[in-house]
Amino acid sequence: MSVAVSHISKRFETFAALRNVSLEVKTGELLALLGPSGSGKTTLLRIIAGLEIPDEGRISFVGEDVTEKSAYERKAGFVFQAYALFQHMTVFENIAFGLRVLPRKKRPNAQAVTKRVNELLELIQLPEFGHRFPSQLSGGQRQRVALARALAIEPRVLLLDEPFGALDAKVRKDLRNWLRHFHDQTHLTSLFVTHDQEEAFELADRVVVFNEGSIQQIGVPSELRQNPSNEFVRTFLEV
Amino acid sequence: MKRATSDHWLMRYLFIGVMFAFIVIFLIFPVCVVLIEALQGGLKFYFNTLLSTHSLTAIRLTLLVALAVVPLNTIFGICAAWAVTHFKFRGKGLLISLIEIPLWVSPVIGGLVFALLFGRRGWLGPWLDDHNIQILFAYPGIVLATAFVTFPFVARGLIPLMQAQGSAEEEAALTLGANGWQLFWRVSFPKIKWGVLYGMILCNARAMGEFGAVSVVAGNIEDQTNTMPLQIEQYYLNFGLPQAFTLASLLLILSVITLAIKIGLEWRRLAPNMARPH
């Protein structure tokens, strides 16, 4: 499997954000973390990326234990909820960032960077937008740039925090289809956080239902609908 | 709808008038007096005074002090603002208040603390004496006292700026594989560079003009430890009123230049998009 989360617990002062969470993500899988706000799903995503340190438990990527590694060593592709694009850089420079900060030996030359960034701009269907600044883009365009920036470093796993949360309904639908299509082509192991069950069910191969810091149920969409394991899942999914 | 209280013309003119009168009497008039008095003796006298040994040493010392203090407090200010905005720790609120101490206490007290610490009978005095290190009544002491007074200027401007910006872009840079050094220079610094420059300018203005703290630690040795403000006082006490005004006018000109740079920066910050290519 690509990502293994075992027995993760995390407290913020007195609030238990995660209680003994274990989860395995298969290689090439698109997994949704679904739950109400405050249920711990974003915290788990940030722990996987290395942006938060768990109190207990281990994280491994493709068999390698990365629990002690910092976020910059793990290099999980992370797409932030509010995109977190570098405001002072052009779209081109945003996408090139991950390549430019590589250690000298691995850093591609200027030509290779340009080639790679242009490929990614094609992929996100914004080939003419390289010279723009993030402030000159729409929400959906920013989201795609954030995705391209995360993909530039060829991450082993892609983590998306509420990827469609801030978009209007139409753009949301388009981008969702685009992401499903992208995943079908690349089979990059991906986890995304959402509070929208329709989104989770339509997009994901498997869905993990969260509540109050614990996993309530894991399963393929049809399974969850037919056999909710407890009262919370039943009510939350309105079966 | 018209609001009865705020729109009465008499009130408006009264308030604006009082404000202008205040500014003219307390700010513009003294500045004019300094400039006029400085030029009373003619241009030849003016330049002779500025080029005298007394004045030149003072100008040189003031610039050297600013040259040491501004980078010192800039580094400190960036570190402090970074710590406060990016790390969670106990006593953060206290730290922010502590940074502002030099704004609340009289500079003379700052100077006295250093005198107490490094003076001949002070805590570290005997040790420094044994090792032949001169801090009080010398350049290091003046730098320390000035650094104390100007300590909050960079940090104070940066903390709210960095808090408002949050850490999202820094986190993004981390997940893209940037190490701490790359993170700072490529992501954090470009976002705060105008704030840093602004703080440096304020710090510089205050450093060049500092009198109280420096006068305690400098010991008034003419041609050695007199900064510009101290030399102005020296001239004044020695009945050299025209000389005092001459040197004061130079300090004033430096302030006006600082003010002009500050206004220029504010324009730039208000219209950040105009500065961008495209």
* Number of E strands of chain A: 10
The chain-level structural class of chain B is mainly alpha
CATH fold field value of the largest domain in chain B: MetI-like fold
Secondary structure: helix percent of chain B? over 70%
Catalogue the unreliable spans of chain B.
273-278
Mean pLDDT of chain B: 89
Biggest chain pair interface? A-B, 33 and 19 residues
Cα(first) to Cα(last) distance of chain B is 43 Å
What's the topology here?
The complex is a heterodimer of chains A (239) and B (278).
Chain A: E1 3-12, E2 15-25, E3 30-34, H1 41-49, E4 56-61, E5 64-65, H2 71-74, E6 77-79, H3 91-100, H4 110-123, H5 139-151, E7 158-161, H6 169-186, E8 190-194, H7 197-203, E9 206-211, E10 214-219, H8 221-226, H9 231-237
Parallel strand pairs in A: 3-8, 3-9, 6-7, 7-8
Antiparallel strand pairs in A: 1-2, 1-4, 4-5, 9-10
Helix pairs in contact in A: 3-4, 3-5, 4-5
Chain B: H1 9-38, H2 42-50, H3 53-86, H4 92-99, H5 101-104, H6 107-118, H7 125-130, H8 139-150, H9 152-165, H10 168-175, H11 180-209, H12 212-218, H13 228-237, H14 241-270
